[in-house]
């Protein structure tokens, strides 16, 4: 059973990590991207699919006056034309328009002044005739008939009769100019006090004035005891100082009579209505807004006219708004995918050229998208109050995805995927900016920290980091939204603290941060096993010399084993100085020559340890070359059966590239006649390749040749090592073996110095130790000399 399972997993791994043409991988990527686009659009659009209409007809379940049988919630934010609100605004606009009045200043001359002059002339005549008593005055001057005898007598007793006319004229003129005296009572007196009055002055240069509504006085109010009479009396006392109260009362009463008799203001209803219609027409159509996730009516509540209006508007706009939302989501996802695609092509064009990497990325992304759907169903449940305390982005495991991708691949790829995911969270959170900032910030921080996961303790640090970042962003969101962190209920500090929003969001941030870090620890072994990816922890496991293949290499090809560790030391130092993945290089070197195990004695480094007569005759160059080539093919097959990662297997063929086995090729040319040499195919003496496709495998190619050549040095010195390293590198350059590796001239200089440093320390000359018997002879001679 175990054999069958291991064989099956080997086949799966081989299928997933198989090198395919770039065009095939790109087609697979297009399919995966399209599926992701449909999946994300579907998940984000599900709330809009479910917005059904409700029956508000008179016999419907949601008609006005009935009890709502279920809670109705809007999933989309939209605005609608609110007729009632518009009419209310128009009424407000109308009520703010002043009432229009016409005031004819010609009344002063034609009415009041004329009658006042006539009456005072009669008074003068009566005084001259000696008939100056109140009864006669009231009889001869009908307009003064309602004045009391005391008032008339006060006028008769006033010695300066010539000033009476001026007093009364000034008083009436002042009332006329300041007030608007109307003939009839006004039914809109209260509204007039709020809106004011617009006076069209007839017969003056000041054509229009705006006055307070309380300055428009019906003439019936003039003689009634009240605020109007008190104000007019005070006005008279200001214009007639130093006179008796009886004379003051007489003058004001007579003046008010003339004003009463000739009210100069007339209400103009046509002008008022026209101005109000104009103001109402200037009011724009008012719109009301129904927020996303707004509960329009709860189950058991009475459906009021306002609620019915919202339900009707939701019925009217729901289908249209939902369709627009779905199209908007789809188009936005397309734009985001294009942006992410261009970014990855620009910065990591060759990163995703295998099936396994694409499956890892998209499968993990689908897990997070599915979690967004499940979380939104709970978070935005009709009766849930989670949105009042938390933000949706606090529940989405964005950190898990970006930590994983950042650790397995690199931060650029992880940030790109996190950028796309942050917008998905933004849409799923009903366009909440804090949720977007939570997702995007966590994505960036976890992507950067993912490359720094070197030990198990780093996962714990990652949990604290993600928690701290989320607390900061959530706090900023609370401050921006004006939410309450802590409210005292009088139950005690600790009780209030545990029930506070501050405590709840802090706990949720801890849960999300550490759950994301823990999930990565759970997923990594699964991904390592299924997709056979060379994570740092996987490489550490493979670097254990107790691995079965390395143990076979030790027992069956011990000198190759020694050679392997020397090449590893050279390559790892160069990779370290070039800031490459030195652990990957070390493990790759450990397994680069495992193909020599089946025929270990054939290879020169092992022959002195395995002197068997059945070894292949090396005097047959063609057969010997085939045996050497077979060690590459055998090594690849053995690595696949052992389920080594593809990145490790690539060291086996690429450390030889397509270089020529010069010794056997030269020998083949040397041993046959010149006429037969044309039948020799040089490709039969070349390794199958490919050439090194990375800096790491190119370093191992140089180090492998250098380590073997260094054994032939007669003298180890900096100069001899410089010459040897230069010779090896030049030979690889001459065969164009480094063309596809990406190594630069500067890199080669660093590689030279790194190799030289390691070789000098490992090939140094040791002092010749003396024989024990020589040491004893010297001790004996010394003891004889010391005796007397």
Automatic annotation (TrEMBL):
<feature type="transmembrane region" description="Helical">
    <location>
        <begin position="413"/>
        <end position="429"/>
    </location>
</feature>
<dbReference type="InterPro" id="IPR011624">
    <property type="entry name" value="Metal-dep_PHydrolase_7TM_extra"/>
</dbReference>
<feature type="transmembrane region" description="Helical">
    <location>
        <begin position="30"/>
        <end position="49"/>
    </location>
</feature>
<protein>
    <submittedName>
        <fullName>HDIG domain-containing protein</fullName>
    </submittedName>
</protein>
<feature type="transmembrane region" description="Helical">
    <location>
        <begin position="502"/>
        <end position="527"/>
    </location>
</feature>
<keyword id="KW-1133">Transmembrane helix</keyword>
<feature type="transmembrane region" description="Helical">
    <location>
        <begin position="462"/>
        <end position="480"/>
    </location>
</feature>
<feature type="transmembrane region" description="Helical">
    <location>
        <begin position="435"/>
        <end position="450"/>
    </location>
</feature>
<dbReference type="InterPro" id="IPR011621">
    <property type="entry name" value="Metal-dep_PHydrolase_7TM_intra"/>
</dbReference>
<feature type="transmembrane region" description="Helical">
    <location>
        <begin position="357"/>
        <end position="376"/>
    </location>
</feature>
<dbReference type="Pfam" id="PF01966">
    <property type="entry name" value="HD"/>
</dbReference>
<dbReference type="InterPro" id="IPR003607">
    <property type="entry name" value="HD/PDEase_dom"/>
</dbReference>
<feature type="region of interest" description="Disordered">
    <location>
        <begin position="764"/>
        <end position="788"/>
    </location>
</feature>
<feature type="transmembrane region" description="Helical">
    <location>
        <begin position="323"/>
        <end position="345"/>
    </location>
</feature>
<dbReference type="Pfam" id="PF07697">
    <property type="entry name" value="7TMR-HDED"/>
</dbReference>
<feature type="transmembrane region" description="Helical">
    <location>
        <begin position="388"/>
        <end position="408"/>
    </location>
</feature>
<dbReference type="Pfam" id="PF07698">
    <property type="entry name" value="7TM-7TMR_HD"/>
</dbReference>
<dbReference type="InterPro" id="IPR006674">
    <property type="entry name" value="HD_domain"/>
</dbReference>
<feature type="domain" description="HD">
    <location>
        <begin position="560"/>
        <end position="709"/>
    </location>
</feature>
<dbReference type="InterPro" id="IPR052722">
    <property type="entry name" value="PgpH_phosphodiesterase"/>
</dbReference>
<dbReference type="InterPro" id="IPR006675">
    <property type="entry name" value="HDIG_dom"/>
</dbReference>
<keyword id="KW-0812">Transmembrane</keyword>
<keyword id="KW-0472">Membrane</keyword>
